[in-house]
Each structure stands twice: as C-alpha cells, then as structure tokens.
Amino acid sequence: MTSPSASSRKTLSKIATNRLQKELMEWQVNPPTGFKHKVTDNLQRWVIEVNGAPGTLYANETFQLQVDFPEHYPMEAPQVIFIPPAPLHPHIYSNGHICLDILYDSWSPAMTVSSVCISILSMLSSSSTKQRPNDDERYVKNCRNGRSPKETRWWFHDDKV
Amino acid sequence: MAKGVSSSAVQAEQLKQDGNLYFKKNRLAAAIDAYTEAITLCPNVPVYWTNRALCHRKRNDWTRVEEDCLKAIQLDHKSVKGHYMLGLALLQREEYSEGIKALERALDHGRGANPNSYMVEEIWQELARAKYQEWERDSTKRSWELQKLQESCEIALREKHLEENETDSTSEQLAHLKLVFAKAAEADIPKEVPDYLCCKITLDIFRDPVITPSGLTYERAVILDHLEKVGKFDPITREALFPSQLIPNMAIKEAVGAFLEKHGWAYNMD
Q: What CA–CA distances, in Å, run from A51 to A14, A35, A48, A60, A82?
C-alpha cells in the first residue's frame, strides 16, 4: 500500500538532488515545529514524524508521513502519504492518501517539504471531527493495486473541514 | 565566377555533413580530413573551424583546438563554441585567468543566443569548476601568507613587550591580533550563501536571474521550465505569468558577481 508508483522510482535528476540536499540542510538547521525527519541515507524517500498540535483533536498523537520525490522534483510534486495508521480526518483516507490540492493540481515548485508539512499540519489542526471521508471504503478498494495518490483524479472537498 | 563560388560553398557544406557523420561514428581522423577540405574550399565559415576543433578536443590535441578556435573567433567574434573550447584549451595549459575570461565570453554569447540550451549549462559547469579551482589555489596562498604574517606579528609583539616589561597588555594585544587575523580570513571560509542571492526554486545561487512582474526573481532556465511544464503562473504569487514577461535582473546579477568575487568557494557545485 505504501509502495510508490513505478514512475516515481526513477533516480533523481541533478537539479532534484541538488535541491533536496539544500532542503535537507535547511531542515536540519530549522525544522518545522512538530515535525521530525527520520534520518536515512535515502534522499529520494523521506519519512517524517508528525506530532498533532497541542489544543487540537490530534494533540498527543504521532503519525508518520512518507514523502517520495519524482525524478523531476520540484517541477513535479512529491508523493506524500501517511503511513497507516493514518489520522482520522475527513480528507485523509485509511490507506494514508491525503486529499490536499497543493500535492496535486495546485503544486508549485516554490513549495518545499517543509511548507508542505506545515500545510498538512494546519489541515489536521483545523479539523472539527474525527472521521474518514464518506467514500473511504470505495476509494481504498480502488487503490488496492498499489496506485499512487498522484494518479487519482481528485475532486477537492471544500476548505471548511 | 559567381557560379564557381557557389559551387565550392555547396561542396564545402557537403564535406561538413560528411565530417559530422564521421564525428558521430567517432571516426575522428576522417572527420578532421573532411573539415579540413571544407576549410580549404571556404576558409571563412567559422563552423568548419569549430567542428574541427571539437575533433581535436576529443583527441586531447589542445594546441590545435586553440588554433582552430582563434580562427573561428576571428571570423565570428560571437562564436559560442569558439570561445568555449578556447577557454578549455587555455585552462589545459594553465592559463587560468585567460581561460576563465574566454569561458565567460562563451557564456555571455550563449545566453544571448539561447539561454536554455545544453551548451549554456555545460559552459557554466566548466566555468564554475575553473573558478572554484582558482579560488582553491588563491585562498591556500592567502591563508599561508596570513599565517606567516601572524606568526611574525606575534613574535614582534612579544619582543616589544619584553623590552618594555608590560606583561599584562601583552596577552590582551595578542588576543586582539588573533581577532584581526581571523577577520581577515573570514571571506575564504565557506558559509551559507544569503537567501536573497538564491533562487526560490533551485535554492542555489543565481546564475542568470530574471524578475517577474510580481517583483520576484528566479533562475532563468528553471522558471522557463516551470512555465512550460507546470503552468503559466508565478510559482510564489500564483499570478499569471508568460515567458515574454521575464526581464533580466541586472542588480541581482551584479550582487551575485560581487559575492562570488569575494567568496570563490560559492562556485562549488557539489
């Protein structure tokens, strides 16, 4: 379920490698609050620990994000999913896929892993109910062959969580 | 007469085609012969000279590379390949500053002709490497000289105070001296390049910065790539943006130049 699609497994381009090294250095000096990068020697897949923000529905809960970078990052968005168990949230499917526009159609190469993490945390923090999306069962069933969320034709829910 | 001229031009062009074909098959001697014949027929076509230079380059025959490139530049002072390979040849015989100048001219003309071409990237890589090596040589020398000077100053200071018998101020002045020398060595110590000299997409120091109507500056090749592949919008403000709206940011380019002049380590590409 957490294996990325074949297309994102191509080795990183020179530009992508260079940029990720810079991002990693910046992260080490100045990590976003509530996140911890688990150190590996794999630049192409980052595993990041997320702590639910205090005072929100997810306070004291810890989740793991898996970020896979495509060959032409940052011209293409990274694939970002929660490693199950994923937080109970109206925009997060039980297989870890996240319905968030900036990860797909609204990606911009000026965004970074750090800014994506902050968006995800803010999505969690603004939630007022702990529940799965209505179509969770159907969606997860459709993804059983290991489909990447980047291949999903997302129909974005509204902003009010 | 006119007919004669045009037929030799046609013949030379055919010979160039042959040469290109040989070159692709890595038959360098045959390619050189073909280009030489083309040059004999039409000595005023710069491409024949640069193509032959490319063959010499592959054979590591740098003296001939230099000769052919000089001829090509004489015919066309904007010849990107001419300046580029001349620069490489000069670096080969350790004419560093002249070699760097030639690469810089190649880069300027290359960007003018086609800012997004593979040639521009290749020239930049070579130039950056040469600049970085130049910095390594110069900074090693500087640091060695500073160290010797510092030692002499320390000895002189100690001797002076020994004569005057003021041990208290000695250690104080020695500490100050140490600070002064540390300050003098600062520019050569690699640190982070300031954010305002780095592209928000590459996170790397600017090479060819362009500014958008939103007032944001990006690396030219990368923002063009974004506009083509991701969408016609400014990556940060998301306002509509078209390639024709990009304008070179001369102020940032000069600032980058000044920074690199002082901190050659920033040419390190790894």
A: 32, 6, 10, 7, 13
